[in-house]
Q: What sequence folds into this?
């Protein structure tokens, strides 16, 4: 098997003293997306956090552009956009301040993506641009967190339940966003229990790598 | 590259100032605490100038130290809760640089006003005029050291239940040298001991030491807390 842009070999993760999964391998080439599936408590969030470098796996190797992630450090994290359970939105700043500051704090000048206004337009928050983020609804906050993906323009998207609190139209427009990202050569790792329609996405059953639980 | 890094550090600084400014009650807590404590002492001890003058350096410095400790919880807590810290870990820039900006902004909003307000409270504590300059100087050198040192346990205890108490317990032993030399410097220039220059130089040395290790140590602590 040829190695993808993003490759994982023999990954094991633990929570407390319990092994969640072991010997996990996956490959992701440009333009590919993976839908990580499995029931609650299997370790999907732990897997995503390990894959984007937020937590250290017990064993195994994660490679990006052929180099080990642990050696690449900021060279790797600069190419990953992570949207976790927490939105990473500062409630006392307005929606557009959140994005504008994010683009200055999290991107190098040559890697900047869409402007804050264009990104807000794209997720349908244009009218809320100048409102403090804490006044936004759950779904709007989620959309703001996803607008950050557009501002940062990073090749690897790691999305943990990106569709929570989103209405049907927003789910569709977000899926098409991910589709555009893939068409542009981007990679995506998605955990979601909600159904969404995205052509070309591969399923990845995490349960294959977990021991049978008694 | 360096220009980008400086731009990002400035953006973190601006962000912190904006957020703290909009949550002004949190900023004011430390300052109000400082004012209340130093106002209560003359009331409790009595208006005897000589007695007040004797305890003034100690009281002012202890109050400043406790006010700083009180404000430490605000340094990372809200960014931890809303997930902004997670995002900061995924920045293309070194985390220690981001943390340094955060600490600097935090000091500008808590330590700096405290130092600037201290002359007023010093008059209240009957501190001689000649010692007031030293008081402000010692606080300007000492409070950033306190914030820098305090950032490490503040980062380490994120997400721990009762973290606030733990931070105070961890941080107070580390604060004692700063307290001793800060209060000594003021007492010295009030005419109770040796010249204050030596104490102030030592405070400067503490600051230099804290500047070199605290941003790095607290960013390592943040990585551990968020793992």
A:
């Amino acid at each position: 098997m040829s190695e993808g842009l993003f490759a994982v070999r023999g990954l094991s993760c633990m929570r407390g003293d319990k092994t969640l999964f072991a010997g996990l391998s996956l490959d992701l080439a440009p333009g590919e997306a993976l839908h990580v599936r499995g029931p609650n408590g299997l370790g999907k969030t732990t897997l995503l956090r390990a894959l984007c470098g937020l937590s250290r796996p017990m064993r195994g190797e994660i490679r990006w552009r052929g180099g080990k992630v642990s050696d690449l450090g900021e060279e790797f994290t600069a190419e990953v956009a992570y949207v976790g359970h927490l939105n990473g939105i500062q409630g006392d700043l307005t929606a557009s301040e959140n994005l504008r500051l994010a683009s200055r704090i999290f991107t190098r000048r040559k890697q900047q993506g869409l402007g804050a206004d264009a990104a807000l337009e794209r997720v349908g928050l244009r009218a809320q641009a100048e409102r403090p983020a804490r006044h936004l609804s759950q779904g709007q906050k989620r959309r703001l967190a996803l607008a950050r993906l557009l501002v940062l323009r990073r090749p690897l998207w790691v999305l943990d339940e990106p569709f929570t609190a989103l209405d049907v139209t927003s789910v569709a427009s977000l899926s098409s966003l991910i589709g555009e990202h893939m068409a542009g050569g981007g990679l995506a790792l998605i955990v979601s229990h909600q159904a969404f329609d995205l052509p070309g996405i591969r399923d990845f059953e995490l349960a294959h790598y977990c021991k049978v639980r008694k | 590259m360096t220009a980008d890094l400086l731009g990002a550090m400035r953006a973190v600084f601006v962000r912190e100032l904006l957020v703290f400014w909009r949550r002004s009650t949190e900023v004011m807590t430390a300052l109000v605490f400082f004012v209340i404590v130093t106002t209560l002492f003359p009331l409790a001890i009595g208006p005897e100038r000589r007695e007040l003058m004797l305890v003034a350096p100690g009281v002012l410095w202890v109050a400043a130290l406790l006010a700083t400790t009180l404000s430490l919880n605000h340094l990372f807590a809200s960014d931890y809760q809303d997930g902004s810290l997670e995002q900061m870990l995924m920045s293309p820039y070194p985390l220690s640089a981001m943390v340094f900006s955060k600490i600097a902004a935090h000091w500008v909003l808590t330590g700096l006003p405290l130092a600037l307000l201290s002359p007023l409270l010093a008059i209240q504590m009957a501190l001689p005029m000649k010692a007031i300059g030293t008081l402000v100087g010692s606080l300007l050198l000492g409070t950033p050291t306190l914030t820098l040192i305090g950032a490490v346990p503040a980062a380490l205890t994120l997400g721990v239940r009762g973290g606030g108490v733990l931070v105070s317990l961890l941080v107070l032993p580390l604060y004692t040298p700063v307290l001793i030399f800060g209060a000594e410097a003021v007492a010295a220039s009030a005419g109770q001991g040796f010249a204050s220059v030596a104490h102030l130089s030592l405070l400067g040395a503490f600051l230099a030491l804290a500047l070199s290790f605290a941003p790095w140590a607290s960013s390592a602590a943040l990585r551990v807390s968020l793992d």
